[in-house]
Amino acid sequence: MKRWIGFMTLALAALALLAACSSYPIGTPSAVISINNQSLTQDQDTGNWKLEFQLEARTLPGSPGGVILEYKLDGGGSLSAGRRIERCPTTEPDPCGPFTTNYTLEFTSLPPAGSFVVVGYTVMGENGAVATISLSAPLRIY
Known about the structure:
Layout: H1 2-20, E1 31-42, E2 49-59, E3 66-73, E4 78-85, E5 96-107, E6 117-125, E7 130-140
Antiparallel strand pairs: 1-2, 2-5, 3-4, 3-6, 6-7
């Protein structure tokens, strides 16, 4: 009887772990995403606008490595990334990285504020598994 209770406890713990990890398929990296070095400038000769920024990923402790394929934008667009992110050992107290991708977007007219908001990212693990992960809070670029 004690063995049966021990087995059931172990089985329930395994199911709870699988349920908690369901948003991150096995083998895909999990990361914290942030934005750095934003600048919006206007060319005085042409009048065109230039938006420059960096998206920074930091893999969470225990996360495997992989590639961020793209960042998903609110409204359906995306920014190509192709950025390799390294695994982060479980012994690390903080996320590993940073792994940055630089972007420069040019416009003939100034887009409305709030036009560029990152809401998720698509990642491929070292085992080939691909997942789209939603950010817990949108990340406003512009």
